[in-house]
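Final report, closing paragraph on structural work. Over the funding period we assembled a curated collection of sequence-structure pairs, and we close with a single example.
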Amino acid sequence: MDLAFFHWPVRKAQIQATLPDGLEVDTYDGDAWISVVPFRMEGVMMRGLPSIPGVSNFPELNLRTYVKRDDKPGVWFYSLDADQSLAVWAARKFFHLPYFKANMSSVANADGSIHYRSSRECSGASFDGVYQPVGETCKAERGSLEEWLCERYCLYACSKSGKLYRGEVHHRQWPLQKVQYQIDKNGIGEAFGFDLSGAPYCAQFAKKLEVAVWGVELC
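Its predicted structure, as stored:
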Protein backbone atom coordinates (compact mmCIF):
# COMPACT_ATOMS: atom_id res chain seq x y z
CA MET A 1 0.00 0.00 0.00
CA ASP A 2 2.72 2.56 1.02
CA LEU A 3 0.02 5.18 1.60
CA ALA A 4 0.49 8.81 2.57
CA PHE A 5 -2.15 11.22 3.87
CA PHE A 6 -1.46 14.92 3.16
CA HIS A 7 -3.97 17.37 4.69
CA TRP A 8 -4.77 21.08 4.20
CA PRO A 9 -7.36 23.19 6.08
CA VAL A 10 -9.88 24.95 3.81
CA ARG A 11 -12.70 27.40 4.46
CA LYS A 12 -15.97 25.65 5.22
CA ALA A 13 -17.93 27.76 2.73
CA GLN A 14 -15.48 26.93 -0.07
CA ILE A 15 -16.00 23.21 0.42
CA GLN A 16 -19.79 23.44 0.82
CA ALA A 17 -20.08 25.28 -2.49
CA THR A 18 -18.57 22.25 -4.29
CA LEU A 19 -20.81 19.56 -2.76
CA PRO A 20 -23.98 18.06 -4.25
CA ASP A 21 -27.36 18.67 -2.64
CA GLY A 22 -27.84 16.47 0.40
CA LEU A 23 -24.25 16.54 1.65
CA GLU A 24 -22.98 18.82 4.40
CA VAL A 25 -19.33 19.67 4.88
CA ASP A 26 -17.90 18.15 8.06
CA THR A 27 -15.51 20.20 10.20
CA TYR A 28 -12.97 19.78 12.99
CA ASP A 29 -12.78 22.77 15.36
CA GLY A 30 -14.52 24.83 12.68
CA ASP A 31 -12.17 23.98 9.81
CA ALA A 32 -12.97 21.97 6.70
CA TRP A 33 -10.20 19.84 5.19
CA ILE A 34 -8.85 18.67 1.85
CA SER A 35 -6.57 15.61 1.62
CA VAL A 36 -4.34 14.22 -1.11
CA VAL A 37 -3.76 10.47 -0.72
CA PRO A 38 -1.21 8.63 -2.90
CA PHE A 39 -0.87 4.87 -2.49
CA ARG A 40 -0.69 1.57 -4.32
CA MET A 41 -3.65 -0.79 -4.57
CA GLU A 42 -2.72 -4.44 -4.03
CA GLY A 43 -4.87 -7.55 -4.42
CA VAL A 44 -8.00 -5.68 -5.52
CA MET A 45 -10.90 -8.05 -6.24
CA MET A 46 -14.65 -8.26 -6.35
CA ARG A 47 -16.14 -10.13 -3.40
CA GLY A 48 -16.02 -13.90 -4.03
CA LEU A 49 -13.57 -13.65 -6.93
CA PRO A 50 -9.76 -13.96 -6.96
CA SER A 51 -7.43 -11.07 -7.71
CA ILE A 52 -6.10 -10.91 -11.26
CA PRO A 53 -2.37 -10.30 -11.89
CA GLY A 54 -1.80 -7.12 -13.87
CA VAL A 55 -5.28 -5.82 -13.03
CA SER A 56 -5.47 -6.05 -9.23
CA ASN A 57 -2.31 -4.04 -8.43
CA PHE A 58 -1.95 -0.40 -9.49
CA PRO A 59 -1.14 3.11 -8.18
CA GLU A 60 -4.04 5.33 -7.13
CA LEU A 61 -4.20 8.99 -6.11
CA ASN A 62 -7.21 10.51 -4.33
CA LEU A 63 -8.35 14.06 -3.72
CA ARG A 64 -10.96 14.02 -0.96
CA THR A 65 -12.81 16.04 1.64
CA TYR A 66 -14.95 15.22 4.67
CA VAL A 67 -18.73 15.31 4.74
CA LYS A 68 -21.79 14.05 6.54
CA ARG A 69 -25.40 13.17 5.81
CA ASP A 70 -27.96 12.49 8.53
CA ASP A 71 -25.07 12.96 10.99
CA LYS A 72 -23.17 10.03 9.45
CA PRO A 73 -19.59 11.17 8.67
CA GLY A 74 -17.84 10.00 5.54
CA VAL A 75 -15.57 10.91 2.64
CA TRP A 76 -16.37 12.74 -0.58
CA PHE A 77 -13.97 12.20 -3.48
CA TYR A 78 -13.36 15.01 -5.95
CA SER A 79 -11.16 12.76 -8.07
CA LEU A 80 -9.49 9.36 -8.03
CA ASP A 81 -6.66 8.74 -10.49
CA ALA A 82 -5.54 5.23 -11.44
CA ASP A 83 -3.40 3.77 -14.20
CA GLN A 84 -5.65 0.71 -14.69
CA SER A 85 -8.37 1.26 -17.31
CA LEU A 86 -10.61 -1.58 -16.09
CA ALA A 87 -10.56 -0.26 -12.52
CA VAL A 88 -11.50 3.22 -13.76
CA TRP A 89 -14.41 1.85 -15.79
CA ALA A 90 -15.71 -0.42 -13.00
CA ALA A 91 -15.53 2.26 -10.29
CA ARG A 92 -17.40 4.76 -12.46
CA LYS A 93 -20.09 2.25 -13.47
CA PHE A 94 -20.73 0.43 -10.20
CA PHE A 95 -19.73 3.00 -7.53
CA HIS A 96 -20.43 6.32 -9.33
CA LEU A 97 -16.98 7.53 -8.31
CA PRO A 98 -15.05 10.14 -10.36
CA TYR A 99 -12.13 7.95 -11.45
CA PHE A 100 -9.73 9.15 -14.15
CA LYS A 101 -7.10 7.33 -16.18
CA ALA A 102 -3.60 8.64 -15.46
CA ASN A 103 0.00 7.82 -16.21
CA MET A 104 1.41 6.86 -12.81
CA SER A 105 4.35 5.29 -11.04
CA SER A 106 5.10 4.37 -7.43
CA VAL A 107 8.77 3.45 -6.99
CA ALA A 108 10.27 2.16 -3.74
CA ASN A 109 13.83 3.44 -3.33
CA ALA A 110 16.68 1.67 -1.53
CA ASP A 111 16.46 4.09 1.43
CA GLY A 112 12.83 3.18 2.07
CA SER A 113 11.33 6.26 0.43
CA ILE A 114 8.58 6.20 -2.19
CA HIS A 115 8.80 8.32 -5.34
CA TYR A 116 5.25 8.86 -6.55
CA ARG A 117 4.27 10.45 -9.87
CA SER A 118 0.88 10.93 -11.53
CA SER A 119 -0.30 12.82 -14.62
CA ARG A 120 -3.96 12.61 -15.63
CA GLU A 121 -4.48 11.79 -19.31
CA CYS A 122 -7.50 14.04 -19.92
CA SER A 123 -6.22 17.22 -18.25
CA GLY A 124 -2.60 16.78 -17.21
CA ALA A 125 -3.44 17.35 -13.52
CA SER A 126 -0.34 16.05 -11.80
CA PHE A 127 1.42 15.12 -8.59
CA ASP A 128 5.12 14.45 -8.04
CA GLY A 129 6.58 13.78 -4.62
CA VAL A 130 8.80 11.62 -2.44
CA TYR A 131 7.75 10.42 1.01
CA GLN A 132 9.20 8.13 3.66
CA PRO A 133 7.92 6.80 7.00
CA VAL A 134 9.81 7.61 10.20
CA GLY A 135 9.40 6.43 13.79
CA GLU A 136 7.20 3.79 15.35
CA THR A 137 3.75 2.73 14.21
CA CYS A 138 0.87 3.98 16.35
CA LYS A 139 -2.88 4.53 16.26
CA ALA A 140 -4.44 7.98 16.24
CA GLU A 141 -5.54 9.22 19.66
CA ARG A 142 -9.26 9.24 20.28
CA GLY A 143 -10.72 12.65 19.49
CA SER A 144 -7.60 13.88 17.71
CA LEU A 145 -7.47 15.56 14.31
CA GLU A 146 -5.58 12.53 12.97
CA GLU A 147 -8.39 10.19 14.02
CA TRP A 148 -11.01 12.52 12.55
CA LEU A 149 -9.21 12.67 9.21
CA CYS A 150 -8.19 9.02 8.83
CA GLU A 151 -10.86 6.94 10.55
CA ARG A 152 -13.73 7.27 8.09
CA TYR A 153 -16.00 4.30 7.49
CA CYS A 154 -18.20 5.30 4.59
CA LEU A 155 -17.95 7.11 1.28
CA TYR A 156 -20.47 9.20 -0.60
CA ALA A 157 -20.91 9.38 -4.37
CA CYS A 158 -23.27 11.04 -6.81
CA SER A 159 -24.55 9.62 -10.10
CA LYS A 160 -24.77 11.60 -13.33
CA SER A 161 -28.49 11.98 -12.70
CA GLY A 162 -27.83 13.58 -9.30
CA LYS A 163 -28.75 10.64 -7.08
CA LEU A 164 -26.73 10.39 -3.88
CA TYR A 165 -25.19 7.08 -2.81
CA ARG A 166 -23.45 5.79 0.30
CA GLY A 167 -20.98 2.91 0.53
CA GLU A 168 -19.83 1.35 3.79
CA VAL A 169 -16.07 0.91 4.31
CA HIS A 170 -14.59 -1.62 6.74
CA HIS A 171 -11.04 -1.77 8.08
CA ARG A 172 -9.08 -1.86 11.31
CA GLN A 173 -7.77 1.38 12.76
CA TRP A 174 -4.96 2.77 10.61
CA PRO A 175 -1.40 1.85 11.73
CA LEU A 176 0.08 5.33 11.30
CA GLN A 177 3.64 6.62 11.23
CA LYS A 178 5.09 10.08 10.92
CA VAL A 179 6.29 10.85 7.42
CA GLN A 180 9.07 12.89 5.83
CA TYR A 181 8.18 14.26 2.41
CA GLN A 182 9.04 16.56 -0.44
CA ILE A 183 6.22 17.50 -2.80
CA ASP A 184 7.56 19.00 -6.01
CA LYS A 185 4.25 19.24 -7.88
CA ASN A 186 0.66 19.12 -6.68
CA GLY A 187 -1.92 20.39 -9.14
CA ILE A 188 -4.77 17.95 -8.72
CA GLY A 189 -6.87 20.40 -6.69
CA GLU A 190 -6.74 23.25 -9.20
CA ALA A 191 -9.77 22.13 -11.24
CA PHE A 192 -11.91 22.45 -8.10
CA GLY A 193 -10.49 25.81 -7.02
CA PHE A 194 -8.07 24.48 -4.39
CA ASP A 195 -4.49 25.74 -4.26
CA LEU A 196 -2.53 22.96 -2.56
CA SER A 197 0.92 24.12 -3.66
CA GLY A 198 2.02 24.94 -0.11
CA ALA A 199 3.13 22.44 2.51
CA PRO A 200 0.33 20.40 4.12
CA TYR A 201 -0.66 21.20 7.69
CA CYS A 202 -0.13 17.58 8.72
CA ALA A 203 0.68 14.22 7.16
CA GLN A 204 0.75 10.51 8.01
CA PHE A 205 2.02 7.26 6.48
CA ALA A 206 0.57 3.74 6.54
CA LYS A 207 2.49 0.75 5.22
CA LYS A 208 -0.40 -1.66 4.76
CA LEU A 209 -4.03 -2.19 5.70
CA GLU A 210 -6.76 -4.43 4.33
CA VAL A 211 -9.87 -2.47 3.35
CA ALA A 212 -13.29 -3.77 2.26
CA VAL A 213 -15.74 -1.50 0.43
CA TRP A 214 -19.36 -2.65 0.17
CA GLY A 215 -21.53 -1.79 -2.82
CA VAL A 216 -23.10 1.67 -2.78
CA GLU A 217 -26.78 2.21 -1.99
CA LEU A 218 -29.12 5.17 -2.40
CA CYS A 219 -29.26 7.39 0.65
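The longest strand covers residues 126-138. The chain has three helices and 14 strands. We thank the funder for supporting this effort.
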